[in-house]
Amino acid sequence: MATAKKQPALVKWIDDRLPIFTFMEHELNEYPTPKNLNYWWNFGSLAGIVLVIMIVSGIFLAMNYTPQKDLAFDSVERIMRDVNYGWLMRYIHMNGASMFFIVVYIHLFRGLYYGSYKRPRELLWMIGVVILLLMMATAFMGYVLPWGQMSYWGATVITNLFSAIPIVGKSIVTLLWGGFTVDNPTLNRFFSLHYLLPFVIVGAVMLHLVALHQHGSNNPLGIDRKGPQDSIPFHPYYTIKDLFGLGCFLIFYCVFIFFYPNFLGDPANYIPANPLQTPAEIVPEWYFLPFYAILRSVPDILFIPAKLAGVICMFGAIGVLFVLPWLDTSPVRSAKFRPIYRWLFPLLIIDCIFLGIAGAHRPEGTYKLIGQLATLYYFIHFLILVPLVGWFERPKPLPTSISNPVLGGGRMPATAAPMEKP
Amino acid sequence: MRALVSALAAAGLIVGIAQAAEEEALPNQHWSFEGIFGTFDRGELQRGFQVYQEVCSVCHAVEHLAYRDLTEIGYSEDEVKAIAAQAKVTDGPNDQGEMFERPGRPSDPFVRPFPNEKAARAANNGALPPDQSLIVKARENGPQYVFGILTGYRDPPPDIKMGQGMRYNLAFPGHQIAMPPPLSDDAVQYGDGTKATSDQEARDVVAFLTWASEPNLEVRKRMGVKVIVFLLVTTVLLYAVKRKIWAGVH
Q1: What is the pTM assigned to this prediction?
Q2: Which domains does chain B possess?
Q3: 20 to 30 Å CA-CA from A375: which of A6, A8, A201, A386?
Q4: Which residues of B touch A349 (CB under 8 A)?
Q5: Cβ distance of A267 and B133 shorter than 8 Å
């Protein structure tokens, strides 16, 4: 190890007892990373950074927030008006939730395009889906905390989903509410869980990283690294690339925080919760709209009532991602070499956007039809097209190694060595 | 991935068109506080406060504002003390265990016109005048909406059956509103010589309510400009470093 010789005595003393420096050296400096990762690979580390931003801003908010139904709304307004830079913390946190989902959705679709979920990264992918589920639960409960109209009615609609479960449904809902309606006990437990779950996410992210470092990153060609000529050390190459990406992302994020802080939110959440007055339209935040559309689009299926069928399909939409590594029968990872799947991918994205549009409107007329067709296509994509295309498609020939297409088969310079410091 | 980008662009277009089609015919006023560099006009805010104080506050509370906040719209501390002192605040209990009334102090929140919702409804024919502290943020397209309500009173079209005590208003959802037209020409007398037309009063009070719902708007935007400039410079530098580090790899 190059740095081992230069280590100060204290570092050596610690490292001998707790090999934290060796660990960092191994996972950052020596960790071999494919040299051809494009900018779509920035979003994993970005997601990690947003998680930290959310936890830190959230801790400061929790210091000033009161989880009591008569005080919650006012305590948030106090944060906005009287707490020093409270408005900044709240807008960071509020918009951070949206940013987290933007980043994670891009990260997820990147995995879908380049086949990052395939052997040997199935568990890595599945842990990622678990993180997504945890994020959704956390975001949902966080949205309830300001106790505005959308908080209250969103909580009512979503918790009521569980009543669709036969026999035990009603009891589960009572258990979730801590009573017979969304009320103070609901707010209390949601606050408690909203504070807990992010740390569960941190744990899941660590597992995600352990699983990642086992085989290393996939890459845009989707082929394995053949030797040192295909890799570069993570540091400094990807640390600086990630930092540059972080700069771009922060600019995007800050435009929302400072200039359009409420653009992504619903104005109705600035009206205090009123259990006696249902808003004209109960709409979740944008990142849940596709799932909301699926929930509301499904009709009665055979003997299953529409509500239960909707709930099953909504969770099924995540469920198919969970088993995707086994649904996809193609041995080729990257869509670059899959002439048919390559075109299914943008169709899936358009489908998700249509689901989002349908989710934002009442399920009536055209929107209902859009929602139903888009829901149908979503499941056709994962359950029929993906397995079938894997069988029938004739993938293009794969390059022999990562450095070959990059270097046009020429000689490889020794780029694998860590960069020399000037 | 190019396909992804074009798919997103196409979908963005669809969403944009759909939203444009849904937009209600609200007035399209321009405001000094719009845009990245937008700021409040102190004169406008003070006139708006006057309109609120003399007209709106008869029915509407602004419970998230305190009198001390008025220093931010250009009143001196003495002026704020005088404004606060006009209000009667119920305080207590005192050492005898009784509630008592005293003149307001700058630290008091704006005094509400009604002690509770029941009292407010009883005085207003069953309708509840909503708190105005967040009204601009709590409505889609807030400033235009509030301006639209204040200037949107018309005679009802003949084919519409109006509820008892209801007025026809273009901007209000369902067009039937319980609030009588609050503003009229010369409803207030401005100290700065501005002519108090009802449109002018509406504009002023909308500016005041926008400030009331987002008192940190100016601080936020000013900080935002600095933050973005800082990030732009940093990001350009990071890009340069990235280019240098990666120079030998490709």
Answers
A1: 0.91
A2: 22-65+110-237 (1.10.760.10)
A3: A201
A4: 4, 7-8, 11
A5: no
